[in-house]
Structure formats: structure tokens, C-alpha cells
Amino acid sequence: MREMRKKAGGTMQENVISQANEALIQEYLDIVANDSENLDRTMSLMADDCVWVMEPTGDTYSGREEIKAFVSTAMSGRIHENQYGIQISNWFTNGEDLCIELSRPV
Questions:
Q1: Residue ranges covered by each domain of the chain
Q2: What's the CA gap between 34 and 48, in Å, rounded?
Q3: Which end of the chain has the lower number of beta carbons within 10 A, N or C?
């Protein structure tokens, strides 16, 4: 796992998740905030039986291959320049689900 540039978002999760899970979450948040064009890095975090649910539409993608196809398609139609980055302001988990509060500078 790469060294974090800066811890993405705050955390008050010590009583909910293990240090290993927090490290996994921080790796994912770093990808979202700093390396979102790296499909291989993103997919390295996904298990074969993972499920990705898009809110608020509820569109659901199941398994690595389906998620990889969705993410690849989504990435192909966008261009990210530094001034359009993502800033993560907060995140929380109940130990099962992860919710991320983020914004994009305008």
C-alpha cells in the first residue's frame, strides 16, 4: 500500500473498525482524492464478490468484472485537471457501509 500524502477526511471510527479496515478506507479515499484515474489501483481494492451501489439512483454493480467495466466506462468520458480535483471533508462507517462527503472546487 502506498504512503498517504495526507490523511483524507477526518475519522472518529476507532470504536467501529479495525486499524486494518481504516487503512483500507484511507487507501480508497486517497485514490478518490488524488489518483482517481488509476483503474488498476482502484480495482486492487475490490474483492471478487464486492458490490458498488451508486446513490441516489441505486444503480448496483456486482463483482470485480462488472465494477471494472462500469468504472472504465465512467472514466473514459471525463478529463480531470488539477483544478477540478475532489476534496474529501468527512467520512463515516457503521462497520459495514462507508459514506463519503466530498466536494469539487468550482
A1: 38-103
A2: 25
A3: C
